[in-house]
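User: For a benchmark we're assembling, each entry needs the component sequences followed by a predicted structure for the full assembly. Here are entry 17's components. Please fill in the structure.
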Amino acid sequence: MFPPAIKGGELTPRANKVSKLLDLGYNGHLESSGEGVTTVNLKVNGETRNLGEIDPQTPLLWALRDELKLVGAKFGCGISQCGACTVLVDGQAVKSCSYPVSAVGDGQVTTIEGLAGNDGELNAVQSAWVDLDVAQCGYCQAGQIMAAEALLRANSSPGDDDIDQAMASNLCRCGTYIRIREAVKMAAAMRQSAEAADAAE
Amino acid sequence: MSTLNYADIGDVVPRVTGERAALDETVDLRIGKLDRRQFLKLTGLVGGGLMLSFSTPRALANAAALQPNGYIKIDATGIVLYAKNPEIGQGVKTSLPMIVAEELDAAWEDVEVVQSAIDQGLYGAQFAGGSMSIPMNWDALRRSGAAARAMLVEAAAKHWGVEADSLSTKDSHVVHAASGRKLKYTELATQAAAMPVPDPRSLTLKKRDQFRLLGKRITGVDNRALVRGEPLFGIDQTLPGMKYAVYQKCPAIGGKVRSANLEEIKGMPGVNDAFILDGNGNAMELLPGVAIIADNTFAAIKAKRALKVEWDESDASKDSWSHAKAEAERLTNESGPAVVDTGDVDAAFASSGKRTSGFYTYHFVSHATLEPQNCTAWFKDGALDLWAPTQTPGQGIGSAAKVVGISPSKVTLHQLRCGGGFGRRLYNDFTTEAAAIAKRAGVPIKLQWTREDDMAYDLYRAGGFHQMDGSVDDDGKITGWRDRFITFTNDGRRPVSGGGLGAGVFPAGLVDNVRVEQTALPWKNRCAAWRAPGSNVFGFVVQGFLDELAHLAGRDPLEVLLEVLGEPRQMGRRGMHTGRAAGVVRLAAKQAGWGRELPHGHGLGVAFYYSHAGHIAEVAEVSVDDDKRVKVHKVTVAADVGPIVNLSGAENQMQGSVVDGLSTMMGLSVTFENGRVEQSNFDQYPMLRMPSTPDVAVHFVDSDYPPTGLGEPALPPLAPAVCNAIFAACGHRIRTLPISEEGFSLA
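Assistant: Structure for entry 17:
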């Protein structure tokens, strides 16, 4: 059948909760310093960042992009359909466009800016994307890379069906799916050989 | 600065000068079905543009750096190559500098690529459209690289006191083989800068077998920054003190603002201002609407949701797909004005053994660039700066200057990577809106369209209807072909861009008796170029109907296609070469195993289409189950576009064109009722996802023709190849796009 539209929210328990909060017009039981405003600290890429006073409904995407100037995650649809905004919360891929910043709580947010090592060295997924020249326009690729990162953290040697399923919630308008699939496999192999090297030491 | 509106599009015919003629000799300026005059007007090429793009730009004054033209800067610190045209995913930020580096003999790893400024005096036309970047710049870029190389060689000859012709160049070095000495380009830059810039026409360029870089797989120059999430795109720009803007236009295009709850909106948290803009009367530039300025994007979007506008819809669109379809069905019973009329179709129909007919339909579609339209603008001290993801920066400058009321010389447009183009960003309505809002705001603003804005105010690929009639004789040869085409017009005078058939449409010139008629229905919603304009739908119709006639004759469709192409010859100055066409058809068929025995329920389909100077054939293998679920197993693509610049980029464009073509033909449509677009986001516009992606095999013909672009021409053959394969698999002839309208879905 034609790929089904993904109606709202996420498949993960966390995201289901978030989606309900959005449906209810969630405006925060967190400490509020004014009408529709709260103070939020966000753990992003290993640092705690103070967002100051912010509308608690603000999607994580806009908090990252507008307030923290972490613009790697992209705005595509605003309704969890395209995956351009994908980031990790506690290692799970979430659509940050539909995820209220106040729902992150103590969760650890990882964005694409946080993938490379401290020395700037690209990680396996990033390297595979460069080596295979995956991108065309490149706009979706931050989301694709984060979805691939989440997959490989959960499944170190995914098969074609695993990859297709994990990546099905990320659209690429340019149609680079063939290369994305290959890059995920290459990244998996790179991670495995790195682990084997670590184990041998 | 040229501008585009309904009234004047296509009216200006560029004067042909000696320089123009020279360019045309080098480059075949075929622009697919997008009318040539429209295209030149749109891209600002009217007047001197083409001359400038051909001439090697003036040397830039800089004593310490070798800068013989706008593409190269070499100094002691390194080699910088400038990429002149917008990067929209077609790969030109990598491929254009590769052409320079080849003739310069620079090692690619020594090169830093920088996006150039918009300076059409220096670079000639700067735009991304029509798959034109490679063919229009190939010669000038080669000569630019060769000129700098010659100056470096001259400098080294003077330095060593040897003859220039005793020197060679390789990997960013000048080498004196006789003495074993060599010098880096970076070491020679200052001396080379003092050498006279050679006449570009005097330079000897490499032969193809001397290429070291071209034809190799090179990863995109922005890839490392992309995978780190660096701010490359228009949407990523941030300025100090910047505010965030949204703009609400009438849901039925053409409506004007009567009143709005501006005071209520201004009182919302985080909102700074809200005001009405009247529009400037040009639907391609500034439509009437309400602007909201806020502290952040979310506050702006929330305020937009709370906005209540009373619209005056007296002049607004009443467009209706269902009415248009009914009208088209009625009109196809009557004869219309002919754009092609060769031989005598009626006589052919009357005397031929077999006849068939079919009514072909395709819906409107949206560009749906994944990056919604946006533009950052700052109007300060009578000057305007724009940070914009646009395909036509020159035209964007012109429209912005007009709406703000300043000279184009006071507008600076910073060109940024575009998150997809597909033709959408040839039109600068979003940059013009940003300019108008910035003028009023007095602070830097980023105008952000939501996805809903993007789908509601696109410049759509027009739908269309074709009543096809054809005949074959007792020998199975096609004798007559009639296409009664019903299209749309925005201006009431000519078809929308990408919605007009021309004299060169297939199979004019290939079949004896051909009549193509064209009638346009008035339409308010803006329609314009969408990847491979015209070709992306005409390919489906003509290659599908050709397959119908082959089956009517009881013959192999491949054999009939090759018979129709006939003897190798050039079809007019800008048409296809039938020998190159047959070459790719044979190659695709051979690679796909045409004629082999297939599993039950499988079918192979072949299609060829010529557009944007590219000859491309595709063979699809599909299977169809009893519930009309289609699985596309493999698509084999064969292309003849001359020498390949970047093999990785070229192959990526082919793979992407197949996926885009499949995505669009399977399930994408935009429909209109009561003037309004009925789809608002991706949940109603289901683009293809990874699990449905077929295998794609790409084969390039190694030919010596001048290289041409690859952003578009691989898309048109995809839909007919798949539809013809579906017929072969299950006997159902598809005549409607998307095919979901006929009950098909992807397995």
